[in-house]
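Sequence only, no structure available. Ideas?
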Amino acid sequence: MTASMRPGGEPTARQANGVPPASAPGDTKILIALVTAVFGYALMQTVVVPALRLLERELHTTPTWSAWILSAFLLSSAVLTPLLGRMGDLYGKRRVMIAVLVAYAVGMVGAAAAQNIGQLIAARVVQGAALSVVPLSMAILREALPRERLPFAMGLVSGIVGAGAGAGLVIGGLLADHLSWRYLFVLGALLAAISLRMVLRWVPASRHTATGGLDLPGAALLALSLVAILLALTQGPSWGWTSARVLGLFALGLLLFTALLAMERRKRDALIDVSELTDRPMMVTHAAALLFGAGSYFFYLAMPLFAQQRPGPGGVGFGASVTVAGLLMLPGMLAIIPAGMAVGRIATALGPRWPLAGGFLLFTVGSVLLALVHAAQWEHLVFYAVVGAGSGLVMGALPKLIADIVPLTRTGTANGINNIARTVGGVVGSQLAAAVIASSISSRAAGVPDSAFTILFWLGAAAAVLGVIVSPLAVRHAAPPPRVRQELQQ
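Reply:
I predicted one. Tokens follow.
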């Protein structure tokens, strides 16, 4: 088999031995373009985190409003991603990705020029469209690359999401410490422009598009339900989890989502294929993404806080700078890339269920080690690298499992919903972590006690254990429904 064979062919001898096949020059350029676009998104996902307090001071705002710099981005991402993924399936992945990158660049320029917190939040809403580059990239890879290179390529792109998020913490700290916060968004605009040029030159137009139209009523209901649920999660700590506003938002979100499912069952061109969503392997794949998102954010909040906290009477913390705090997480973030690239080999050697289950198992081991011992910097470096390796396997396995379940023309939509599940999990994890930290502080001078960090690491382990339990169910053992089976064979 040559490298020009497209999805649907038989595995090569190299693939059977777990060795990535040689790629054509065009395939390599496509992968480089998509990796660059995804890295730009992933970097900007976290690059503002180290600068939040600086932004609060520079823009003369309150902690409540500065928190919306992150919340607005998450809400916008969750709302726009399934719609843009579906548009990619309908009208062409390359065309939609170009539009997304243009909007992303505009959002970055707007953020760099923002004069007040309102303008910055508005720019972050526009930037939220960039999450869709991840499912769009997965759909482009599935269509444009040979089948035997897909696990490697999807694993690499998935790994870049995690590695870019880690790099954002380091780069954000460096820029916040030594330059203006505006350079955070100047960097994002440059990456968006470079990615746009690469996509225009190297990524081919879609050869497979879905039939039908855009389900705008379904998109509106999904958007409203997500906004209600995510608002309840993000505002729960400040409004009170049992307050009427929070409980009302949760109820509204669930009611709207129930109405969405009822409506989608009767539509031919539904944004959400209910039979696909409720198919056990797909449902478990989304559940695994949610667990992974929650588990990851326990570490995103706990580890930088521990590193930057000055040791008090109990000796908890390293008193490190923002930059050093990010560097302590860097080995774990870098471990994501090779682990994600190894998904294809592991699946070939051990079976399709093992990359996901093995990833959650490594995540569990690293979490337990950190829960037991975390007083030294080397323990953070080494044990979080184990968590990172597990994260890479999970992130690489999820899109591969989706590609095995859904037809080619729904790849962007299905990956978009999976990314939403991970985003919702991240919001859940971040709010649980914030609640644990807030409830543990008896006085501002005392800082966060060691027991709070231990609880957060154990929560990460618990999420990963649940992931290990459900992972075998994400692999299809029985034949798919007739309609899905027919589309998969096309």
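The chain has 20 helices and no strands.
Hope that gets you unstuck.
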